[in-house]
Structure formats: structure tokens, C-alpha cells
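Table 4 source record.
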Amino acid sequence: MVPDFMVIGAQRSGTTWLHRVLSQHPDLWLTPVKELHYFDKPRIRFGVLDADERRRAKFWDLKRFGRDPRWYTRYWFLPRSDAWYGRLFGQGLRQGKRVGEITPAYATLERPVWERMQRLAPELKLVFVMRDPVLRVWSAIRNRVRKGQFDGDAAVAALLEQARLPGAASRSDYLRTIETVEAVFQPAQLHCCFFEQLSSEPAALADDLFGFLAVPSLNEGLRLPPAVNVAAGGHEPPLAFQREMARDYLPMVDRLAERFGAVPQGWLERYRNLLS
């Protein structure tokens, strides 16, 4: 038992929107917990014993537990292994559906982990959604502010320091993710899309995604959720922050624009304007 598909990131780029869209399809099944973090957190042996995991996945939510006690019992109390992971998809597989999970942190995985995933699920389909990397990292910073983990009135130098931390920077290194995945899986197994399409052409984005997953379009039956990412809370990144980040990301965005066209081309033009 292995998943048919994964949404692998990027963080703060619309993966919750994708979860809401995919969950509507009668031929698709997603795990009750959105982010399993199986491949990026190998240190966790039992979910219930890890404080971060209990907090992140809301261990105390008895109402949610009651909706599917068998699945949650396995998720929380059994030792994690490849067999444990595969059985998390058993319910959907028994229903004859295509099964999957969404964990944005997978975008930062190293090649040996991808190779392990490929051995486990060689036919796996992967979805990678990208966002203007300057705005993505700004959203991540504002999300930390919202959680009380960072000073919302910090100086630009402190903001840049946060944006350039290895963990934050790796989540915006889209080329590295794409190149690593395509070195292990066939390029046709990776579907790339963009956060900006959630607002500009959400129905087309959903249809392309359903086509990639080999399920029919929902047409008029699709309920499109709003493409709102609330973490920034209306706070625009300071101009000096945008300029420094644009300088960091310009070479990568130039290559993305060459490969994907319109959306990253818009990022590229904005960065050039900022730097001129």
C-alpha cells in the first residue's frame, strides 16, 4: 500500500487550497491529517510521544479523532515505518480511489530520501506549487509573527537574516527541488503549477491537476475556495527587503521564466523593476 500522489510544496504557496480542491473529488482520497511529515522527520518513532507532532496535528482534538478512530489510533500510537506509512492509505485504496498526502516540507528533501521514496512508490505522481519567492518568504516570516515566534516590528536587517536562514531559503529554492525530483523520478511524474493561478485561473488550474492525476474534471460541481493566504495580514514587505531578496532570487527566477513562461516571467519583470 503506497500513495498514488503527493503535493510536496512549496510552503506558503497554496497547498491548503489544493487540499480543499482535491478533497472534493470523489475519485481521490487524502489522509485525515494534511501533513504526515513521514519522510522529513525520521526521528519520530511514535507520533504521540513527540511534543511538536502533538501540537502540529492537534492530538487533543477528540472530535476529529472520533470521526475515524481506527485511522487516528494507527497514526498516533503505532511505530512509524514504511509499513505504517502505507497502511495510512488503506482506507482510500479499499474504496478504489487514488490516494495521496500533502506535506510542503518534502520540497526540501535531499536526493537519498527521494530515492527511497522512488523505491517505495515508483509510479508516484508529484505536485509542486510555486509562488513568487520574495512573497513566499515574506508570508513565512509573517506567519511566524502571527504565532508569536518573531518580532513583527523587526528592522529590515533582522528580516533579511530570517529570510536567509537555511530552512527558509531552502523552501524557496524551487530549481533545486525540481532538479532533484527529476533526477530520481521521470519528469512526467512531476506537475508544476503556481500560486498566482489560484486567483487568475483557478478552474483551469484544478482541471490541469485532475488531468495529471488521471481523474475526470468536476466542471460545474467544483467549489472553488478563495485563494487567500492570510499570514501576511495585509502587511507589505518593506521595499528594501524586496530589493535584497529580488537580488538573491533573480538568477533562479530567470531560469524558471525560461522554462515555465508567464507566471515566473512576471516575477522576473518585477524583480528587474525593483533593482533598476
